[in-house]
Amino acid sequence: MKEELDYIGDIAEIRSMMERSSKFLSLSGWAGILVGIYALAGAYIAHAIFNFNPDEVAYSISPTGLRKIIFLGLILFVLAISTAVSLSYKSAGKRGEKLWTPTSKLLALNMAVPLITGGILILILAANGLSGLIAPFSLLFYGLALFNASKFTYNAVMVLGLAEIALGLLSSYLIEYGLLFWALGFGIAHIIYGIYVYYKYER
User: Which residue, 18, 36, 158, 193, could crosslink 150 as a Cys pair with Cβ 3.0–4.6 Å?
Assistant: First the structure.
C-alpha cells in the first residue's frame, strides 16, 4: 500500500514538473486587477475629458483629438505591459523560477503577432476616418492574442480571450456602445480574471 502511495506521489510530482516546464505559471492576478483599473480610468478620460464616444464607424474626430486618443492608448499599453512584467517577475521569484524561459518566450511571441497586427490595422483605420472601429478591433485582436497564447499558461487566459472576442464582435455591431464594451472587456473582465487567478493560484 505504501509503495502504491509512493508511486502515485512520484507520478504527481513528474506531472507537476512537466506542467511547469511546458506552461508559464507565473502570471500575476494583481496584474490583471491593476490593468483593469487602468483601462477603466482610460475609458473615463477618453469619454469625459477627450469627448471620445464613437456612435458610427466613420466617427468624426479632429486630428488633435485622434492624437490624444492614440497617445492615451499608448500610455495604457505601456502601463499594462510594465505592470504585468514586473508583477510576473515577482511571482516567478517566489516560485524560485525565472521569468524569461523558453515557454514565456513562446507565450510572448504568440501574443505579439496578433497584437502588432491589430495595432497597425487600428492606426490604418483611424488614419482613414474609421475611428468607430478602434474599440471593437482592439478587443478582437487582444482576444485573439490571449487565445493564441493561452496554450502556454492558465486556462483562464483562454476564457478571458474568448470573452474579449465576444465583446469585440458585439461592439462591432453596436458601434454606439463601443467605448462601453471596451471598458467591460479591458476593465471589468480583467479585474474578474485577476481576482480569479489570485484566489486560485496565488493566495
Answer: 158
Residue 4 exposure: Cα atoms within 13 Å on the Cβ side: 1
Kindly tell me if the per-residue pLDDT of 96 is higher than 90.
no
Look-up of cell digits 471589468:
188
Cβ pair 26, 198 in contact under 8 A: no
- The phi-psi region of residue 96 (left if phi > 0; otherwise alpha if psi is between -120 and 50; otherwise beta) is left
Cβ-Cβ contacts under 8 Å for 64 (sequence gap 6 or more): none
How many Å apart are CA 130 and CA 191, to the nearest integer?
A: 29
Angle at 69 between CA 66 and CA 72, to 5 degrees: 150
CB 42 within 8 Å of CB 71: no
CA 121 to CA 163: how far, in whole Å? 21
Task: Report the Cα 39 to chain-centroid distance in Å.
Answer: 11
